[in-house]
């Protein structure tokens, strides 16, 4: 596809700007790493048996079907247009012949035997009978799909004659804005997000998008460009050559480590309950005996634990992270904690010469397993970029939000909204039940309206089926609500909705629902 004008092409070998089906992200890819789609399709499916890869293949096939349908329609329209043009030309010739005959008869009476009248009328009729219909047909005929007008030629990427890419059809189907004055209507909505997901209106010109991006970087240091600077090979990611450590193999950490290993990263793991490491050792991970050992032997160490106390104990406790920190060592805390905690941890890490990045994740166990988390990062910008291949392996997009503490605040706000919404869903379902309404019908109605979402459907299904196997622990969403309320108190901002939801979750905890999924808040309403 055509890259944004402001995105510079990497130096060195020839490469293309490629859109990836499935993950819906983009990257510069070297020519030698591109293969023909159809000849290699079966081979690649055998190698990549994951669900995400199959979804990507399905997306390619669907795109090709649509493209073929449009091409057939375009071909049919071209034939009809040609027939109309030929018919128009024929009528023009008949009209010209008729006028010529009449004019010849008329002028023959005056200038009999001279060729002047014939010559003059012929030229007029030719102009009227052929030029006008042709010009009209050209004006009305649709521009061939994928061919840029003259002022867009500079945007077209030259196609290599020896390379038939997997995304061949995409070049024709992906329309970049022809001018800065025309709104972006047909471009990929995911690519808007790739450029800047904080843009307030999707239908804005590209110039406005790039301007907004610069403003965000200058004023707040907050950007949301997806990490796409790593080289992807056959839908996979070129892993960093840095040694990666990971501390904490809970619901989220387990999925993250699994994806890091799948994408070829060298990973050393540690968990408080050592048995949880066994599966990852079998998958190729190395075992660290203590957090300090992991940090001292790895270049970048990630941690994902349950709460502020666990995060502090991991860093400051016996054989903790801090004991392994020395100049140049990097620590990335992915736990959802408050801004004060993460700021304290950053200070002690940096005081020992280390580099610090906070990177809490938005998602659940399923999204973690699928490598589709959303990463919110803040702190050392260079370290954020060094983590690019890791973030691509574990998530679908990442945001850099500026100074330490910003990501913690944003994460608490996101989870506050999510937790409050879950409590409202449970409240609605119980109200439907006690008033004699069908809960399934309520879900069907919601799924057809503006609130429709995967989250809504999954959580309602949990409740209807009585299945509260944890995908996001109830105790952790209550912890996040509590921290979000404290964040509001710290700036004297009211959070009455979150406070009400928090009380419902506290009741659910009292009913022994802490280790169930957050959707078990439903039980607080029926007891």
Automatic annotation (TrEMBL):
The keyword RNA-binding does not apply. It is found in: Chromosome. Residues 65-119, 136-156 have a biased composition (Basic and acidic residues). GO terms for molecular function: DNA binding; NAD binding; NADP binding; nucleosome binding. One of its GO terms (cellular component) is chromatin. Transmembrane segments: none annotated. Residues 5-62 form the PWWP domain. Its main location: nucleus. Residues 405-525 form the 3-hydroxyisobutyrate dehydrogenase-like NAD-binding domain. Residues 243-402 form the 6-phosphogluconate dehydrogenase NADP-binding domain. Residues 65-163 are annotated as: Disordered. InterPro entries: 6-PGluconate_DH-like_C_sf, 6PGD_dom2, 6PGDH_NADP-bd, GLYR1_PWWP, HIBADH-like_NADP-bd, HIBADH-related_NP60_sf, NAD(P)-bd_dom_sf, PWWP_dom. Pfam families: NAD_binding_11, NAD_binding_2, PWWP. One of its GO terms (biological process) is transcription elongation-coupled chromatin remodeling. Keywords: Chromosome. Signal peptide: none annotated. Belongs to the HIBADH-related family. NP60 subfamily. This is Cytokine-like nuclear factor N-PAC. It comes from Vireo altiloquus.
């Amino acid at each position: 596809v055509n890259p944004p004008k402001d995105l510079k092409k990497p130096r060195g070998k020839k490469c293309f700007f490629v859109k990836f089906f499935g993950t819906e992200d983009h990257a510069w890819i070297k020519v030698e790493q591109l293969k023909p789609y159809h000849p290699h399709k079966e081979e690649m499916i055998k190698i990549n048996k994951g669900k995400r890869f199959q979804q990507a293949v399905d997306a390619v096939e669907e795109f090709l079907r649509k493209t073929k349908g449009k091409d057939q329609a375009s071909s049919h329209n071209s034939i009809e247009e040609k027939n109309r043009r030929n018919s128009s030309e024929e009528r023009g010739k008949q009209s010209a012949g008729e006028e010529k005959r009449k004019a010849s008869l008329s002028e023959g009476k005056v200038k009999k035997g001279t060729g002047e009248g014939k010559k003059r009328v012929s030229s007029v009729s030719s102009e009227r009978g052929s030029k006008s219909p042709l010009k009209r047909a050209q004006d009305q005929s649709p521009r061939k799909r994928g061919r840029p007008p003259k002022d867009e030629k500079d945007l077209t990427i030259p196609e290599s004659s020896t390379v038939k890419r997997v995304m061949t059809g995409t070049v024709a189907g992906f329309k970049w804005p022809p001018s800065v004055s025309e709104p972006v209507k047909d471009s990929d909505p995911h690519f808007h997000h790739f450029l800047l997901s904080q843009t307030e209106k999707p239908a804005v010109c590209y110039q406005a998008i790039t301007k907004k991006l610069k403003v965000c970087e200058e004023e707040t240091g907050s950007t949301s460009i997806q990490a796409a600077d790593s080289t992807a090979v056959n839908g996979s990611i070129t892993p960093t050559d840095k040694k990666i450590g990971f501390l904490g193999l809970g619901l989220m950490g387990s999925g993250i480590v699994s994806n890091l290993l799948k994408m070829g990263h060298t990973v050393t793991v540690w968990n408080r309950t050592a048995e949880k490491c066994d599966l990852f050792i079998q998958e190729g991970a190395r075992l660290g005996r203590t957090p300090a050992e992991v940090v001292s032997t790895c270049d970048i160490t990630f941690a994902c634990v349950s709460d502020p106390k666990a995060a502090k104990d991991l860093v400051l406790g016996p054989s903790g992270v801090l004991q392994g920190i020395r100049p140049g060592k990097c620590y990335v805390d992915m736990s959802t904690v408050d801004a004060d905690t993460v700021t304290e941890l950053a200070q002690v890490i940096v005081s020992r010469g280390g580099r610090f990045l906070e990177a809490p994740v938005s998602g659940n166990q399923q999204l973690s397993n699928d490598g589709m988390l959303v990463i919110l990062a803040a702190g050392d910008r260079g370290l954020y970029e060094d983590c690019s291949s890791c973030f691509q392996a574990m998530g679908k997009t990442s945001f850099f939000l500026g100074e330490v503490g910003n990501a913690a605040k944003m994460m608490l706000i996101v989870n506050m909204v999510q937790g409050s919404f879950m409590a409202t869903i449970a409240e609605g379902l119980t109200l439907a039940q006690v008033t004699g309404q069908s809960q399934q019908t309520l879900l069907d109605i919601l799924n057809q309206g503006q609130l429709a979402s995967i989250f809504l459907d999954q959580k309602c299904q949990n409740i209807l089926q009585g299945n509260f196997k944890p995908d996001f622990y109830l105790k952790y969403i209550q912890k996040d609500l509590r921290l979000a309320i404290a964040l509001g108190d710290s700036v004297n901002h009211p959070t009455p909705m979150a406070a009400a939801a928090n009380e419902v979750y506290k009741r659910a905890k009292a009913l022994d629902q802490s280790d169930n999924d957050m959707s078990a808040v439903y039980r607080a309403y029926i007891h």
